From TrEMBL:
Full protein name: EamA domain-containing protein
The organism's place on the tree of life at top rank: Bacteria
Entry-linked Pfam families: DMT_YdcZ (PF04657)
Transmembrane segments: 34-58, 70-90, 96-117, 129-146
One CC-aspect GO term: plasma membrane
Keyword Membrane assigned: yes
Native species: Methylorubrum extorquens (strain DSM 6343 / CIP 106787 / DM4) (Methylobacterium extorquens)
InterPro entries (UniProt xref): YdcZ
UniProt keywords, alphabetically: Membrane, Transmembrane, Transmembrane helix
Length: 147
């Protein structure tokens, strides 16, 4: 089972990179960035509704809604910011540089979130191996960015 979970995560990473190019191409073809972002959002909603019969959907009680931390409501805005970045920035930087920057930033941020147990993640100490991994990611990004 862990292999399937890791494979699903790898597929999500691949799709994330391809999504950047697709979003940038959509914007280029439409020449309307907000319309492109809205099309992306509509596609997201369609996928969520298509998945709902398999995963389930329901409305939580008011107490559950009240118990949601304030920052948890901002995930959608963060996702929208990423979509806008793919629309405006990915094509200019190229897939390797854009993905390198976003993945390296994500890895470094992830190690910090894990280390401090922030935003709902279980605490995992930023040991020397994790710090070295971050440094290697940054070094790899530098190599990808060199021309």
């Amino acid at each position: 089972m862990p292999f399937l979970i890791a494979a699903a995560a790898a597929i999500a990473g691949i799709l994330n990179t391809v999504q950047s190019g697709a979003n940038a191409s959509l914007n280029k073809a439409l020449d309307q960035p907000i319309l492109a972002a809205l099309v992306v959002t509509a596609a997201n909603v369609a996928v969520y509704f298509a998945a709902a019969p398999f995963i389930g959907i329901g409305w939580p009680g008011s107490q559950r809604i009240a118990d949601v931390p304030w920052w948890a409501w901002l995930g959608g805005a963060m996702g929208a910011t990423y979509v806008l970045a793919t629309i405006f920035i990915a094509e200019r930087l190229g897939a390797a540089v854009f993905t390198g920057i976003t993945v390296t930033a994500a890895i470094v941020t992830s190690v910090l979130l894990d280390h401090f147990g922030w935003v709902g993640f279980a605490q995992h100490t930023a040991d020397p191996w994790r710090i070295l991994g971050c440094a290697l990611m940054i070094g790899g990004l530098v190599l990808v960015c060199l021309r």
